[in-house]
């Protein structure tokens, strides 16, 4: 059910004062590392949305509950890569995925923030929701401990393919962590569909930002 009592949190000001004067770079600090994110104004996926800040913060604060060290982590709709970078710093084997047009900026951010660090080298791959999943990520080869998704639900036409993608990757033993800013009735409809398919818990709410963070796991057959 989705009727849990989530912890109420606030998105902390984890970004540090701008060192550079460029409008397109944001500086954040998570898990003791300064992370510099280049945003792009051309693409939706290339801006840091509040769900990414909420999930990054939550992963940093709840490392015992969600220990990512040496775990296989897939981020869908990775956007600027902030969450994937944080997961990487926390020791995960990360695969960050998004649409082809976002990959260049995503790769740039991930490589510049994870190079020269003693961690598993992250991978960046194309993943179009609902398309070519069996070919590109065959179940026999790819099993993930965690699926991460932030602000993937908004006014777009790919909500059903997104849900199908979550269902495809969220096998028994996998934990899906999804953080989203809730703005539209369609967002709540998506949440309802998610609750119908998975065992779903609202872990945290960030009321000032209208962000909810959910944990979903596959139902036992």
Q: Given the helix and strand composition, which structural class is it?
A: alpha/beta
Low-confidence stretches: none
Estimate what percentage of residues fall within beta strands.
25-35%
Question: Order of strands in the sheet with the most strands?
Answer: 1-9-10-8-7-4-5-6
Percent in helix: 25-40%
Largest sheet: 8 strands, mixed
CATH topology: Rossmann fold
List the helices and strands and how they pair.
Elements lengths: L6 E2 L16 E6 L2 E6 L11 H12 L10 E5 L5 H8 L3 E6 L4 H12 L8 E4 L6 H4 L9 E5 L8 H11 L5 E7 L3 H13 E9 L4 E8 L3
Parallel strand pairs: 1-9, 4-5, 4-7, 5-6, 7-8
Antiparallel strand pairs: 2-3, 8-10, 9-10
Helix pairs in contact: 1-2, 2-3
Structure explained in plain terms:
With 221 residues, the protein is an alpha/beta fold. The protein has a single domain (46-218), classed as Vaccinia Virus protein VP39 (Rossmann fold, 3-Layer(aba) Sandwich). The protein is 27% helix and 26% strand. The chain has six helices and ten strands, in the order E-E-E-H-E-H-E-H-E-H-E-H-E-H-E-E. The protein has an eight-stranded mixed beta sheet with strand order 1-9-10-8-7-4-5-6, sandwiched between helices. A two-stranded antiparallel ribbon has the order 2-3. Helix 1 packs parallel to helix 2 and helix 2 (82-89) packs parallel to helix 3 (103-114). It is globular, with a radius of gyration of 16 Å.
